[in-house]
Write a structure and sequence with these properties.
The protein is α+β, with helices and mostly antiparallel strands and 296 residues long. It has seven helices and 16 strands.
């Protein structure tokens, strides 16, 4: 948000960044259609004419290790409820409304929408019984969390469940009864694509898959190796996905195998600042222009 906020400097707007840390550490008042926060000059009008962008309701490591049903859990729930009340205010024009943000994160809904649009995706299934895994998925599977891919263990240490390849006979598949996981056919990627959309604009970046982990985030150098590319068909399909899911911003992952591109994932609040210039500045500027009421 800081990068976007800097882009708003000098424009005829008064930007305000509201997050749970700022509310916790400052005096605040939510009353009628106004939010006052100690570190924000004046009040923020929760009314028509105000535009907003929801990046996240709370940072990833906010209050880790909280046990549901505990006092700390009740406190966390109260703070979350306050953030939902602010981010869900329908008087504000949001780049992506809160009521669209949560459904848009569901990977199974994304896959269904992609297929409705005629967009190629890896064959997908969810089951708690390995004997019911469809034969059409083949022997080489991709397994990924259906819900969040990170959690805090008993000592508050963060754990991450990465996307991983498994053979259909792998003993790990006996654990499917523990929580729903996505099972997909394994498509060997020649290239990874990161597609960023803002309203009706799209930017496509590519990463050579040679020597890169199945989940490219596990390869440190991959985060700095994307390059801008021209993929007009993928760009149009990515825009169609964003429009169908009703998100004003999206960060999407695709893979290319041979001549075929496959949609993998859509994040309605994903990262883009790790991508190379000059395009990354264009994305930031487009978000800022929309927030300022301009035509991106």
């Amino acid at each position: 948000m800081a990068a976007v906020s800097r882009r708003l400097d000098g424009r005829n707007v008064r930007p305000a960044i509201v997050d749970v840390f700022g509310l916790e550490e400052s005096g605040y008042l939510l009353h009628d259609h106004e939010l006052r926060v100690g570190e924000v000059g004046g009040g923020i009008e929760l009314a028509a004419g105000t535009r907003g962008w929801i990046r996240r309701l709370a940072p990833p490591k906010w209050r880790p290790g909280v046990v549901g049903g505990s006092q700390a859990g009740a406190v966390r729930t109260s703070w979350t409820a306050l953030m939902v009340a602010i981010a869900g205010d329908t008087s504000i024009e949001w780049l992506t409304p809160l009521v669209r943000l949560f459904p848009a994160e569901n990977k199974l809904l994304q896959e269904r929408i992609a297929r409705e649009l005629g967009i190629r995706t890896p064959l997908t299934a969810v089951t708690s019984d390995r004997s019911l895994i469809p034969a059409a998925l083949g022997r080489d599977l991709i397994v990924k969390p259906l819900g969040v891919g990170h959690y805090a263990n008993h000592d508050a240490a963060e754990q991450v469940v990465w996307t991983q390849p498994l053979d259909v006979g792998a003993p790990e598949l006996d654990l499917l009864t523990g929580a729903p996981f996505i099972l997909q056919e394994r498509v060997a990627a020649d290239r990874h694509l990161r597609v960023v959309t803002v309203l009706d604009q799209a930017w496509v970046y590519e990463l050579d898959a040679t020597g890169v982990e199945l989940d490219w985030r596990l390869t440190e150098e991959a985060h700095h190796s994307f390059a801008a590319t021209q993929e007009p068909e993928v760009a149009q399909q990515a825009l169609a996905l964003a429009a169908k899911t009703k998100v004003g911003y999206s960060s999407q992952d695709w893979i290319v195998a041979g001549d075929d591109a496959y949609f993998v994932d859509l994040n309605p609040a994903g990262q883009w600042l790790f991508l190379p210039e000059p395009n990354v500045s264009e994305i930031t500027e487009s978000i800022a222009a929309w927030l300022a009421g301009e035509t991106p």
